Amino acid sequence: MSMDRIRLQRLRERIMSPEEAALLFKDGMTVGMSGFTRAGDCKAVPFALAERATREPLKITLMTGASLGNDIDKILTETNVIARRIPFQSDPTLRRKINAGEVAFIDQHLSETVEQLRSGQIAPVDIAVVEATAITENGGIVPTTSVGNSASFAVLAKKIIVEINVKMPEGLEGLHDIYIPTYRPHRLPIPLISPEQRIGLPYIPVDPEKIVAIVLTEKADSPSNVLPPDNETNAIAGHLNEFLYHEVKAGRLSPSLQPLQAGIGTIANAVLHGMLDSPFRDLKMYSEVLQDSTVELLDDGRLTFASASSITLSKSAYERVLGDIERYKRRLVLRPQEISNHPEVIRRLGLITINTALECDIYGNVNSTHVGGTHMMNGIGGSGDFARNAHLSVFVTKSIAKDGKISSVVPMVSHVDHTEHDTDIIVTEHGLADLRGLAPRERARQIIDNCTDPLYRDALRDYFLRATKRGGHTPHLLQEAFAWHLRYEQSGSMLDKQPEPAFA
Ligand code: COA
Question: What pTM value is reported for the model?
Answer without folding.
Answer: 0.96
